[in-house]
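Progress narrative, work stream C.
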Amino acid sequence: LVSSEQDNPSTSGCSSEQSAKAKTQKEVFKTLKELKMHLPSEKRSKGKSSTVNTLKYALRCVEQVKANEEYYQMLMINDSQPPGFDVSSYTIEEINSITSEYTLKNTDIFAVAVSLITGKIVYISDQAATILNCKREVFNNAKFVEFLTPQDVSVFYSFTTPYRLPSWSMCTGAESSPTECMQEKSFFCRISGGKEHGGDLQYYPFRMTPYLMKVQDAELAEEQFCCLLLAERVHSGYEAPRIPPDKRIFTTTHTPNCVFQEVD
């Protein structure tokens, strides 16, 4: 593959075998081109070494996801009931009902429940497809980390380990107090719903607020621990026309080691 990357595949004779081979090679090169776009700038190089670096980087991303999944499963087996939490159980219909209070108020928010055992999406609100500019079918039987930029996969796992998550019932109940919800921590990830019209993946930044709950799976006839996430898309304050033209220029002063002294 590396040695023939620059060669044009021959389709002389119009045989079906050559045609299929040429089509496969074209798809491989196209995929490599897309992968290279996600390669960190410091790792980019020209020629054949670029292809090798790209494949190595993609392999590391896959290994990272697998390692985190194995950690998840080990954690849940050794500690199936996180201590100190009253984890309530909900059906898919109940999750849709309780999260609609948030999604209906803000068109930039979608809710998603992710299994802590398999990593697969158990529930996702209809608004997600609109926000991520994709078809709802792409979420069927898919793992949530598949939609994250590779650099943010470890961030997602580190902030959604079960023992760190606040219970949904504790933080939303009538008797809940601010102290009980102190463990709630938002984090940020970049999410993509798929290729845009230009053919490239477009990732959008989201603020993720995680909770712990049990979800009743009708197909498996059993409950499973899940992470319920409220994902709110982040918009830059400097995206026109969000701020007036006369306010788009500002000044700052800082020390030589980049400590701010004054901000306009």
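Work stream C, second folded protein:
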Amino acid sequence: PPASQNNEQGSTLRDLLTTTAGKLRLGSTDAGIAFAPVYSTGTASGKSGRTMPNILDDIIASVVENKIPPNRAPKINVKSEIKDEPKDDRKCIQDDCSKRYSDIQYSWICDKHVLWLRDHKNNNNWKLFKECWKQGRPVLVSGMHKKMNFSLWKAESISLDFGNQQADILNCKDSIISNTNVKEFWDGFEDVSKRQKIKNGETALLKLKDWPSGEDFKAMMPARYLSLILDILKSISIPEGKLNLASHLPGFFVRPDLGPRLCSAYGVAATKDHDIGTTNLHIEVSDVVNILVYVGIAKGNGVLSKSGVLKKFEEEDLDDLLRKRLKDSSELPGALWHIYAGKDADKIREFLQKV
């Protein structure tokens, strides 16, 4: 900026430092700043005296003075903000949505923390989804699998196409990883008699560990990749999607692995301990779209009946809408998730450190 403007606007940090320091050296008691500078009283020798003002405080004060013209009041009224009652964001968005999105079939579940879009075919879902996305809220959409080629995702189909490949298989109960043919995993997906046994004769709860993921998925399973991209993900998270920020970062950035990846694990219905999880608690490095593409119904000794599975779900802390959905004969429960708000990450860390 022109030199004549420097003293008025404090246009750059260099100008501000120069003018403030210069005035301080000349012995000015206020250095032309908005607030009195901070002095320390007393010296090491015990004599009273005045030392150099705290330049950082002076700089901040000068910026405040220069940025808010005298004839204009600041936009933020601190006192009024303190007096205002805190707003319930959940209530605000719910009240607003009921007026603006009356043409969308939706409900609020999980103590009104999660939006449930019940009609996947409604083109107006996008409008309401955006409102929740801005706030970092999870959104559940029913029936997305109906848009996909179901035959591609059956266990026997994947086993037939890729059974000869090697992959790491994790035993979720004892965390032992072994490298074996993928066929062994898929053959036991719906037949308990073909599953591995652990030391005490119990059925192993296995999970395919990151197979396949990222570029491997696209190269290995082109038909399934296109099925996901064309039918489900579209502009939200396809690599070239306009809303996929990571894909538009310059090349020198280290981008997160955006997948897609196939997450496959046995259900707990055939295990003795039904409290085992197949995915550990973790934090995602980016927004994630998860699609339940297939639910295998295990057959064999020790497998819970459908009523037994429902009973296990009933023991969970579910709200009335989710309990009602479980009893719907057209619905097939396939996964139980525990999702926590990102803002609570520190509380969770503190809890984990204690236990």
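The chain is about 35% helix and 10% strand. No further action is required on this item.
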